[in-house]
Amino acid sequence: MSNESVDPAGPRKAERPRYPEMQGAARFPVKLPIHINSDAGEKDAETENISANGVLFHHDADMPIGSEVDFTISLPREILGAEAEVNVECHGRVVRSMAEEGGRRGVAVVIDAYRFKRR
After folding, report:
1. pLDDT for 47-104, tens place per residue?
2. 26-118: what CATH class?
């Protein structure tokens, strides 16, 4: 006879991340200028964190999950050691939108396509 206890509810399902598009990559707490263009309008903001798959930023307007968003992340020349800043033009979709204090929202966007653009 085994000493293992048995869960009366039966075997448990393996838990999957709620947002697999975003949660598979390491996140870096990098604050970079970002220009956002979506159905909620255009806005300049700052990234909260960034990963190979996506970005988290704060926005004043609601951005529904699944909505598409275009945004440009500016990489300052000082960080790159380059003569000019480099912009990363991205297209993605909202995978998470969280209410925050003061009416702002934390918005997580998975990056579906991007291209580098030098100024």
Report:
1. 999 999 999 999 888 899 999 999 999 999 998 888 999 999 999 999 999 998 888 8
2. mainly beta
CA distance 69 to 105: 15
pLDDT score of 72? 98
- DSSP-derived letter for residue 39 is T
Q: What are phi and psi of 102, to 5 degrees?
A: 80, 10
CB within 8 Å of 92: residues ≥ 6 apart: 54, 55, 68, 69, 71, 109, 110, 111, 112, 113
Residue 107, phi then psi, degrees to nearest 5: -120, 125
Domain boundaries along the sequence of the chain: 26-118
Query: Could you give the CA distance from residue 38 to residue 90 in angstroms, rounded to a whole number?
Result: 12
Q: What is the pLDDT of residue 98?
A: 92
Q: CA-to-CA distance for 77 and 26, rounded, in angstroms?
A: 24
Q: What is the mean pLDDT of the chain?
A: 83
